[in-house]
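Data card: per-record layout.
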Amino acid sequence: MAIEQMGVLKALDSTKTQLYHFTTIVITGMGFFTDAYDIFCISIITKFWLGFGIGGDYPLSATIMSEYGNKRTRGGFIAAVFAMQGMGILFGGIVGIVVASIFEKTYPLTRTLVSHLLMCHNKLIMFGE
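The structure for this 129-residue chain is written out next.
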């Protein structure tokens, strides 16, 4: 078993250094020297820029559909663009209700409810709520 592990390490020693290696070193080094407050601030800044970009993307999508659509199907495409924004809002609420009801049935009210609520909140963020 130890001989097989040494073979893997020798293979790593003989490979050429690539850009991927430097990227990995920089990213892990940044992780070692940041604390939770910095990560929280970075998260707020990146969410702001993401919202700024999405806010510019919504009106642009209708413009692109009106420019590149055929004359025959242009109205349907623009209606679909605006209808899908409403559908996204509707399905976002439905996903939130479904996840909350699943966690309500799975985890009854106890003193450790806070950790379960945090887990529910993390699942909602994972789904993009």
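Known properties of this structure: The chain has a mean pLDDT of 78. The two ends are 47 Å apart (CA to CA).

See the next section for split statistics.
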